[in-house]
Design goal:
Blueprint (H helix, E strand, L loop, with lengths): L8 H9 L4 E5 L3 H9 L4 E4 L18 H14 L4 E5 L8 H15 L3 E5 L5 H9 L4 E6 L2 H7 L9 H16 L4 E5 L3 H10 L4 E4 L7 E4 L1 H4 L17 H18 L13 H10 L1
Parallel strand pairs: 1-2, 1-8, 2-3, 3-4, 4-5, 5-6, 6-7, 7-8
């Protein structure tokens, strides 16, 4: 059983204050959530990457609030200590009213501790309204699905001074609106350092350098379970896809050749009882 204390928003702020790094990984079911919790991960993010990684879709923008709530309930069942944060999917927070309604559903139906949303400075009212309704918000700027949908391409969001300044404005707006923390994705390392030093709230990097208050990755990516994308910032810590395919292939081969199951894998009936049974047949 996990004996560490429950991770809270206040605990994450204290980590930043005391220069202790924050860890974030994703989960979509109870077993993986439990593994992350046992390993001491601070934030378990139920991200809308379930669309691609868990459901095999070519995109994640079609994920619904119902799906996010379902997967959050599963994750909640596997977590004792980590902070469970769930993404508000694309198109579920186009207005203040819709945003508060979607966030409330995630908290009540999914039993998340907080919600996560991608945005810009234009999302300030959305973030503020969700926070004022009593729901903690983890903001997200930089490379986002919104940017990808608008541009139709996958590109770095801060390539020059002008776009970098825009990222800083977005970060400040998220913090000023009451977000308890901020994910910054695919920003230059120097910009990650500037944003982290400028904000009092924790800043978690996904591909934005070592100077941030913490680091996050998609669990399936870092375990080699999803190989369709290989961004530069990704480090693969294990190749579980290879291990799984090898194990399943061995099972198939042993079944086909008759070497599994053996007597050790089987149950037996007492010989006297078997004789009685055969006499009755």
């Amino acid at each position: 059983m996990n004996t560490r204390p429950k991770v809270s928003v206040a605990a994450l702020r204290n980590k930043k204050k005391n220069n202790k790094k924050i860890t974030l990984l994703t989960a979509y079911d109870a077993p993986f959530a439990s593994f992350l919790d046992q390993a001491g991960i601070d934030i378990v993010l139920v991200s809308d990457a379930i669309g691609t990684i868990a459901n095999g879709r070519p995109e994640a923008v079609s994920v619904t609030v119902d799906e996010m709530s379902y997967h959050t309930r599963a994750v909640r069942n596997g977590v004792e200590s980590a902070l469970v944060v769930t993404t508000l999917p694309f198109g579920s927070y186009n207005s203040v009213v819709e945003a508060v309604d979607s966030a409330t559903r995630i908290i009540k139906e999914g039993r998340a501790d907080a919600v996560h949303l991608e945005g810009t400075a234009q999302s300030a009212d959305i973030v503020r309204s969700i926070v004022e309704s009593g729901i903690p918000v983890l903001g997200h700027i930089g490379f986002t699905k919104q940017q990808m949908v608008l541009s139709g391409t996958i590109g770095l969001p801060a390539k020059d001074a002008e776009s970098s300044k825009r990222m800083i404005t977005d970060a400040m707006a998220m913090a000023d609106s009451g977000a308890f923390g901020l994910i910054i994705e695919c920003l230059p390392m120097s910009l990650g350092e500037i944003i982290t030093r400028s904000l009092e709230i924790p800043v978690i990097s996904i591909g934005s350098g070592v100077y941030c208050d913490g680091q996050g990755l998609v669990t399936q990516d870092m375990l080699g379970l999803y190989k369709e994308l290989a961004p530069r910032f990704l480090k693969v810590y294990a190749d579980l896809q290879q291990v799984t395919v090898s194990a399943v292939s061995q099972f198939r081969n042993e079944v086909e050749t008759g070497s599994f199951p053996t007597e050790q894998n089987s149950y037996s009936l007492d010989e006297r009882e078997l004789d009685k049974l055969l006499a009755q047949l």
